[in-house]
Q: What sequence folds into this?
């Protein structure tokens, strides 16, 4: 893993002072980047360079840097989380790029994700969808039945798990031409729909979450499948189909 | 100051029950008049906020990320322990208690640890009821795996994403309360001070990280669940923003800080690749269930591997040194973390490291035997007689993939090497801090009304934490312990009424935060914050890391002092105070790390013994194992702030062991 010869990269980075101001792309040159560095380590190096020249460093969201917290966002060369499949921006490594390449870096764009600064957007709308129904109403008092009282078919449990691995990054929204949050929402709805614990509130849940998503300004799903391609966790379109079934049956039976 | 741990009377196994039965309660109508601030939304803070809100208190919760779901707990991989004995392998509350005390090298409090073991089973029930999708077997029941330092299978898991699933469970419980208006959530807010009125914690000062506004928030009690301080080493497996600020600020306002030097260096992390590196990545301990750790027996082979002239597969079986299996035959690759880490360092220091970085730091973690073993098993199950070598390998790889797929992918992404074909390279890295804010049995600090939970406190893991026990502790504190104990304190506050944020104490704290921020913005120095953080990290890693000496620690204390002075003179923070400004956030955090680091080294210097993660070269047995000194050091070192970190006053809480016999920890 020794560092090979460093790469020289040209960056076109979206700079925007705040939500009110207009933004624009700015060009930066950064040299001697190790191909073993992560994309965000390259951005760190860029910021170091900017700070030393008394400029204002590029602001971006990040925290875990191992693909699980869902903080990092940004379009890289027009794709949410960049060119590699099934990885987040923070897991992307410079070896994916060519020496001398020009890379475009921009914030996620969606009506429901207003820009806060540079590459940082406000994704709290996703939280509000969860407030609307992303939970099972059980008290946290500890007076519950034994965990093994209800066996759950392994296949279903595994599917529920796969859906539950959504990291709430919003790439699906950013990838969608309608800025729909369907993949994100369907992941939570599927997780609970597949488990016996989630059945009781299933109907209200799907209705409430879908309604909230509309109010937040997320668009409708027109099944282009762009979300699935860009989702770093491989959340499957199957979940949207399940959500639609749940929604249909809930709307038919609700008064 | 006299330390009172408030451990209830009575036999160990009845303490918690008796205590709960006699505790004062706040009636539901009165709870509506009581506000509680919870700083942190990880497993500890998130579960506490949800439960307190559900009980009826008005909760204000804070996190620095843009959503509570992103707290660092999300990154925990391997699993969570609970004494369910579902596997029928002889597990029990007592055994989990005993393993934790022993694993912690007899430096934790019996009563707290027993309570933890006692409530552990409930956690699993709770989480399953919340819809946490734990791994299950084909019969539909919950599956378990083993973690280091124990001989039973009691770890519940959700592939390599256990922390994520548990945190999303707590987050969902929070969402339910946010929807009801019982939790007011403050995302992108950082607590920068605590406000103490008449000796009681009554609020915090927080910075809105979007607007830069400095805000006052009041409450009847303040709970700190802000996580650990491993980032004092700069490179660690912690999230980039993990920090000590909340804990350190309360320390400076009177809360004692306990055992700062107890740090866990995790044996299986991806080795350092170069100077641009920003953090280290853990490869879960669960991999040691199936991976075998080795280095070449011959020093020239190790050299050839580093130079790229030989590959791991070229080394013949008899030329490999499975050093953990050799040194610790009964636990083998599953020795506790501190033991495994030191053994890796020992081999690399002796020249057998296999990674070509500055320090040759790295050893192999090899799955070839597991792939063979599982492959043969699968072939049998599938009724394939005389399977070919390729068939066995392909079947075996599938099993390994189903168990560790996401970890293998992660490794490949970072290193561009395929761990199904060639062994992983791993090396120890800073991972967890057992030390933290001193708390009594109620989880209250030495400041009335101020609590610390989760990794932020020091309470349950002694000098070394066993794998899969942090998640257990975080949720135990938040779901099951704090919600009881805090009632006892708040029972006095039912008539207090709202706490005003106009009190002079709020102004004083706010002014001090503002003046710190102004200093940074106006400093116009010549080095970035990271420049200082990296320097601090190097001092810590080289002199206060895996093995420590008196002379090294003394040097570290002096070097950190000098670095801190330089930091305040020369740090450069661009931008302004009234905007989103991550460099400013980093500066406020590093300022605190630069103080903590010094106390950390002082604590390590004072502790003239080796125990758990704290290894003093002066105190080891002939075969290089840690040598504890129970006669003189069976105490918690709780430090009182007086102005200069290294002039802190040491208070000792003697540890009494009434239920276990102190033994030399042996995993041989
Ligand atoms: C990579 C990795 C893997 C791990 N795997 C396991 C495992 O398999 N099993 C296990 O038991 N343990 C594991 N651990 C340890 C475990 O994850 C942590 O100890 C535990 O999650 C800590 O939880 P917490 O709630 O105390 O704090 P955290 O989850 O760290 O949460 C801290 C919270 O405090 C907030 N915060 C911090 N400072 C401030 C401030 N100043 N103002 C406002 N908010 C603030 C943050 O925003 C966050 O919400 C692992 C740790 C790591 C790093
Ligand atoms: S569904 Fe995928 S892309 Fe969408 S928020 Fe979840 S993890 Fe991100
Ligand atoms: S920083 Fe956490 S997912 Fe990228």
A:
């Amino acid at each position: 893993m020794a560092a090979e010869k460093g790469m020289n990269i040209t960056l076109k980075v979206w700079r925007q002072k705040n939500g009110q101001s207009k933004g624009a792309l700015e060009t930066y040159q950064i040299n001697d980047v190790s191909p073993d560095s992560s994309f965000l380590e390259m951005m760190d190096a860029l910021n170091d360079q900017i700070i030393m020249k008394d400029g204002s460093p590029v602001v971006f969201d990040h925290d875990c840097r191992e693909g699980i917290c869902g903080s990092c966002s940004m379009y890289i060369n027009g794709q949410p989380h960049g060119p590699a499949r099934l990885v987040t921006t923070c897991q992307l490594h410079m070896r994916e790029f060519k020496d001398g390449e020009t890379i475009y870096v921009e914030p996620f764009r969606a009506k429901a994700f207003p820009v806060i600064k540079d590459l940082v957007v406000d994704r709290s709308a996703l939280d509000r969808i969860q407030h609307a129904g992303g939970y099972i109403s059980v008290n946290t008092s500890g007076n519950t039945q034994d965990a093994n009282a209800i066996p759950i078919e392994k296949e279903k449990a595994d599917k529920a798990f796969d859906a539950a691995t959504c990291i709430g990054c919003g790439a699906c929204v950013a990838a969608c031409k309608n800025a729909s949050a369907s993949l994100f929402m369907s992941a939570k709805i599927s997780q609970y729909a597949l488990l016996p614990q989630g059945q009781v509130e299933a109907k209200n849940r799907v209705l409430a979450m879908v309604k909230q998503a509309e109010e937040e300004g997320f668009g409708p799903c027109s099944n282009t499948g762009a979300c699935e391609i860009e989702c770093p966790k491989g959340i499957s379109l199957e979940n949207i189909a399940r959500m639609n079934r749940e929604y249909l049956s809930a709307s038919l039976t609700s008064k | 100051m006299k330390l009172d741990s408030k451990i209830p009377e009575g036999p160990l196994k009845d303490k918690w029950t008796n205590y709960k039965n006699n505790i004062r309660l706040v009636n539901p109508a009165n709870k509506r008049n009581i506000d509680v601030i919870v700083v942190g939304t990880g497993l500890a803070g998130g579960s506490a906020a949800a439960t307190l809100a559900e009980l009826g208190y008005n909760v204000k919760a804070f996190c620095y990320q843009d959503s509570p779901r992103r707290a660092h707990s999300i990154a925990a991989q391997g699993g969570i322990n609970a004494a369910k004995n579902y596997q029928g392998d002889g597990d029990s509350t007592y055994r989990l208690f005993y393993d934790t005390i022993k694993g912690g090298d007899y430096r934790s409090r019996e009563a707290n640890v027993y309570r933890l073991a006692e409530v552990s089973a409930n956690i699993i029930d709770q989480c399953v009821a919340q819809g946490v999708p734990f791994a299950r077997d084909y019969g539909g029941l919950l599956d378990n795996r083993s973690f280091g330092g124990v001989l039973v299978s009691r770890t519940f898991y959700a592939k390599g994403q256990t922390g994520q699933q548990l945190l999303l469970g707590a987050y969902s419980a929070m969402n339910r309360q946010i929807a009801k208006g019982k939790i007011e959530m403050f995302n992108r807010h950082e607590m920068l001070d605590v406000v103490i009125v008449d000796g009681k914690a009554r609020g915090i000062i927080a910075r809105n990280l979007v607007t830069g506004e400095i805000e006052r928030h009041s409450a009847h009690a303040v709970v700190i669940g802000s996580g650990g301080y491993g980032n004092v080493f700069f490179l660690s497996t912690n999230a980039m923003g993990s920090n000590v600020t909340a804990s350190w600020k309360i320390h400076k306002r009177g809360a004692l800080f306990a055992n700062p030097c107890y740090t866990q260096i995790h044996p299986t992390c991806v080795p350092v690749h170069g100077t641009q590196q920003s953090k280290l990545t853990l490869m879960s301990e669960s991999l040691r269930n199936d991976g075998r750790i080795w280095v070449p027996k011959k020093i020239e082979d190790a050299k050839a591997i580093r130079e790229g002239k030989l590959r791991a597969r070229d080394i013949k079986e008899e030329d490999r040194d499975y050093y953990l299996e050799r040194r610790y035959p009964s636990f083998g690759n599953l020795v506790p973390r501190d033991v495994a880490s030191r053994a890796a360092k020992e081999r690399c220091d002796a020249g057998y490291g296999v990674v070509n970085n500055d320090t040759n730091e790295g050893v192999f973690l090899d799955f070839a035997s597991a792939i063979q073993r599982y492959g043969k098993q699968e072939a049998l199950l599938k009724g394939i007689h005389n399977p070919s070598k390729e068939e066995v390998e392909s079947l075996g790889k599938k099993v390994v993939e189903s168990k560790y797929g996401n970890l293998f992918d992660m490794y490949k992404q970072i290193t561009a090497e395929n761990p199904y074909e060639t062994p992983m390279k791993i090396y120890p890295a800073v991972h967890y801090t057992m030390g933290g804010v001193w708390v009594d049995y109620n989880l209250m600090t030495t400041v009335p009304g101020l609590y610390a939970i989760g990794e932020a406190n020091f309470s349950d893991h002694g000098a070394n934490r066993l794998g899969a026990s942090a998640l257990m502790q975080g949720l135990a504190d938040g779901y099951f312990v704090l919600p009881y104990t805090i009632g006892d304190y708040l029972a006095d506050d039912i008539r207090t009424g709202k706490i005003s944020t106009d009190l002079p104490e709020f102004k004083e704290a706010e002014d001090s935060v503002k003046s710190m921020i102004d200093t940074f913005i106006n400093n116009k120095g010549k080095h970035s914050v990271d420049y200082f953080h990296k320097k601090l990290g190097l001092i810590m890693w080289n002199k206060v890391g895996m093995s420590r000496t008196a002379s090294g620690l003394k040097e570290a204390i002096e070097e950190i002092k000098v670095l801190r002075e330089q930091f305040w003179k020369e740090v450069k923070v661009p931008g302004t105070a009234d905007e989103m400004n991550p460099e400013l956030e980093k500066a406020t955090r590093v300022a605190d790390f630069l103080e903590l680091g010094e106390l950390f080294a002082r604590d390590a210097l004072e502790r003239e013994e080796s125990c758990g993660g704290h290894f003093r070269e002066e105190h080891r047995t002939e075969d290089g194992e840690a040598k504890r000194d129970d006669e003189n050091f069976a105490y918690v070192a709780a430090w009182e702030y007086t102005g200069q970190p290294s002039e802190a006053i040491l208070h000792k809480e003697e540890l009494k062991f009434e239920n276990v016999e102190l033994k030399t920890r042996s995993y041989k």
